[in-house]
Amino acid sequence: xxxxxxxxxxxxxxxxxxxxxxxxxxxxxxxxxxxxxxxxxxxxxxxxxxxxxxxxxxxxxxxxxxxxxxxxxxxxxxxxxxxxxxxxxxxxxxxxxxxxxxxxxxxxxxxxxxxxxxxxxxxxxxxxxxxxxxxxxxxxxxxxxxxxxxxxxxxxx
Length: 157
Prior knowledge:
globular
């Protein structure tokens, strides 16, 4: 038997198993409860509590992405996503990622057509750190020539 035939056979078998599993069993929708707030400055906040693991996720989504770019000059939204990891008035250049990692967390971001999304996942006792760091990014971002000139900005470590 050829490899392509085997791959198709395995793919078909998996599809049949999946359909067999789904037939006769109705999917149950999981309701995720959350609280919604709009702060006086217009910032929308969603809060959800899940006590199954001792972590906290701080996420921020900005309504800006590639749709906001000149089609003849693209990539700026993604470039600025990376620049906003550089630091702030109160967080030194290169310290943003170190702060999260030394406090047991991970972080990343991504840019899409209509939004730019940042997140930190930290131990639950570091909620204040995650909120402070996102407020620093939002209010006191510091973009310097060195960050613009560096070509190694393509991915947070």
